[in-house]
C-alpha cells in the first residue's frame, strides 16, 4: 500500500484510502485505494492485479531472520458518472459499524454496502461522517459493478468471503537485494524503495502488451 501511495505522489496523483482493516500482527489486512489524477492512472495500474510477494527481514522473529509476505492486488478503473451502472436504492443494504460503543471514538464509523442481487460489497471508513462514507462506498460499489458488467471479475471477487488465490506471484519485492522482479516478463529493476522503479516495469509491461 505504501509503495503505491509513494508512486502516486511521484506521478503527481492523489491516493485516497477509502477503507482499510489493520492486521493483528503488522500493517494492514485489507486496504482500498482510490488513485486519481491527470496523465492516465489506469494505464499505469492495469497490470497490478495478482499476487505480490515481499521478501524482508522479520520484525517479530529472530533478529535478521528472513520472512515472506504475500498480498493480493485487484485493480480496476473507475467509470465516468455517465457510464456507470445504474444502482437502485432498493437493491442496496446499508450497514454502519461504529468503533467501540459509539461513533464518537478515535476511529471513524464504517459504512458497509451490499448489492443484494449480486452479493457484491463495498465499504468506506475514510471520513468521520456516515454521509461521506456512504458516498465513497457508493462510488466504489459502482466501480465494482461496472467491472462485473465488463466481465473483468466475478461476483465472488468482491463478496464477503474471498476465495483463496492459488496462482503464482506476478511480482516479487526483494528487500534483501533491493530489487523488484516482474515474473510475467522476467524483468528485474533495482531500487525497490524508490517509486520511480515502477515506471520501468510499467513501460516494459506496456511494450509487451500491444493492446495496452
Automatic annotation (TrEMBL):
This is PCRF domain-containing protein. Keywords: Methylation. Pfam families: PCRF. InterPro entries: PCRF, Pep_chain_release_fac_I_sf, Prokaryotic/Mito_RF. Residues 3-55 form the Peptide chain release factor domain. Gene3D superfamilies: 3.30.160.20, 3.30.70.1660. GO terms for biological process: translational termination. The keyword Nucleotidyltransferase does not apply.
Amino acid at each position: 500500500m505504501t509503495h503505491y501511495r509513494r508512486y502516486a505522489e511521484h506521478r503527481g496523483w492523489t491516493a485516497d484510502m477509502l477503507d482499510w482493516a489493520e492486521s493483528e500482527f503488522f500493517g494492514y489486512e485489507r486496504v482500498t485505494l482510490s488513485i486519481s489524477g491527470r496523465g492516465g492512472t489506469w494505464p499505469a495500474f492495469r497490470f497490478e492485479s495478482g499476487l505480490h510477494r515481499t521478501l524482508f527481514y522479520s520484525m517479530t522473529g529472530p533478529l535478521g531472520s528472513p520472512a515472506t509476505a504475500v498480498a493480493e492486488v485487484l485493480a480496476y478503473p473507475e467509470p465516468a458518472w455517465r457510464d456507470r451502472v445504474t444502482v437502485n436504492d432498493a437493491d442496496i443494504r446499508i450497514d454502519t459499524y461504529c468503533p467501540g460503543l459509539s461513533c464518537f471514538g478515535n476511529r471513524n464509523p464504517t459504512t458497509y454496502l451490499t448489492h443484494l442481487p449480486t452479493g457484491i460489497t463495498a465499504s468506506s471508513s475514510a471520513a468521520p461522517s456516515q454521509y461521506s462514507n456512504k458516498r465513497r462506498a457508493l462510488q466504489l460499489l459502482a466501480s465494482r459493478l461496472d467491472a462485473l458488467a465488463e466481465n473483468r471479475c466475478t461476483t465472488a471477487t468482491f463478496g464477503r468471503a474471498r476465495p483463496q488465490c492459488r496462482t503464482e506471484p506476478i511480482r516479487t519485492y526483494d528487500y534483501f537485494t533491493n530489487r523488484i522482479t516482474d515474473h510475467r516478463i522476467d524483468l528485474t529493476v533495482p531500487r525497490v524503495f524508490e517509486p520511480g522503479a515502477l515506471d520501468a516495469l510499467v513501460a516494459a509491461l506496456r511494450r509487451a502488451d500491444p493492446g495496452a
